[in-house]
Amino acid sequence: MRILILEDEFLIAMDVEQLCRDNGATEAVIARNLDEIDQEQASKNFDAAILDVMLGGASTLPFAKKIHENGVPFIFASGYADVDEIFTAFPGIPVIGKPYSGTDLIEALAATAGRLPDSGGV
After folding, report:
1. Half-sphere exposure of 1 toward its Cβ, with a 13 Å CA cutoff?
2. H helix intervals, the chain
């Protein structure tokens, strides 16, 4: 799987990238802001995504809506306080709150992407 990681905190992004690789991702691509990726091609370029809700003060919710409409499975991994807004806009999409354990993150991503950890990871 090719995973997109939207995370603006460098150390967290590096940890998440390594977690994805350790659990079977063929590639994990980090973007610290939405300008670093081709938003129009994201649905074609990635099999799943891990999204922080806010990147440098900019909301990722419009991007999340776009990839959701295009069938890309994703989870939110965020310290963003207003999770009710996320649950309302994206019912059924997992929200993993910061700080989170790597196991919780990978299990949520694997479940969302339809891949259980014991069947090959993410």
Report:
1. 31
2. 10-22, 42-45, 61-69, 83-89, 102-112
pTM recorded for the entire structure = 0.89
CA distance 117 to 55: 28
What values do phi and psi take at 49, rounded to 5?
Answer: -145, 150
Given the DSSP bridges, would you call strands 54-55 and 48-51 parallel, antiparallel or unpaired?
Answer: unpaired
21-39 residues labelled b (16+ CB within 10 A) or e (exposed): eebebeebbbbbebeebee
For 15-27, write each residue's pLDDT tens digit. 999 999 999 999 9
Rounded to 5°, the CA angle 114-117-119 comes to 75
**pLDDT per residue over 51-77, tens digit each?**
999 998 899 999 999 999 999 999 999
State the Cα–Cα distance between residues 46 and 67, nearest whole angstrom.
10
Q: Would you list the domain boundaries of the chain? A: 2-119
Find out if CATH 3.90.550.10 is the number for domain 2-119.
no
